[in-house]
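Morning!

This is the sequence you dropped in the shared folder:
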Amino acid sequence: MSSARAHKVYLGRRGWSLTLIVLIVLASICASLASPLFLHPSQILNSTGAMVVSGVLALGLAPIVIVGEIDISLTSNLAFCTVVLGLLSQAHVPPPLIVLATLATGLVLGAFNGVLVGYGGLPSLAVTLGTLGAYQGAAFLVGGTNGFTDFPGAIYAIGADTIGPVPISLLLFAAVAIAFAVVFRLTTIGRSFYAVGRASEAVRHSGISVAGVKAATFCIGGVVAGLGALIFVGQYGSGGGDSASGTILTVVTAVALGGLDIYGGAGRVSSLVLAIVLLDVIQNGMGLVNASTTTQTIVIGLVLIMSLLVPELLGRWSREHVDQQRGLLQVLRFSR
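The structure's back. Tokens below.
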């Protein structure tokens, strides 16, 4: 069994989700001991604001990782979408059209990456590293250094309003997560994502366009980035080239911690959501004790490293354990 295969086998176990649940409980206990405010219901609901934007982007990255690719330009896509949103708001375009145009902008930017990676055969890391800078630079070029701060009330509502005590943005995040879980597990297109991530050559020989599937995942990620832009503007009341700057570390960490295999072809939305919750608990707890931004960045970086290292080591242990069992069986058979 190869290292990549062992990695997939370990991440595919339900034990990974149970591990995340245990970590959430432990992190919550530590945070509540550090600050009595942590368990207050209003504080918990308010803390979801920062989690939703990175969480939505992590969901958008999920199908891309499942097919074995990466997109680190999602935050720059979001930033450019906020600029488009600001320009349309200045032009007094009706809010429904602003929403559609923002999602369409994210789709176009995602499709550009998808065409280069899927049909052009270029490495996704290099492509999206390039568009990370290009999209953000375009956002500053078009929107200026000050960005936009004036948007229709209906746009603010997406990220700032609540239904009862629950933020609308949190409900949108839940809706996207449920939709992705259904698509990934119960539809042909979802199953094709996993198939391409596991064995792209076999999929190609079966008549399915691997390039088309990969391009589609980048398009999905782009649309989700557009949704993230709508939520971001509502939460923070501004949009520009620096929108969601630095969020990509949390996004990638959530995906890795959530058990989406970096080799492609494995991972569940439920585990990803648990990872997002765990990161929110960690960041919220550090915020309540006034940990510096630098400290929080270091912690998230270490979590990313551990989320890659631990499954790899446990996957290798599982492989060696299986090999030992097979060897023992062979010895017993020979002794007979």
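Headline: Strands lie at 162-163, 166-167.

More detail when I'm at my desk.
O.
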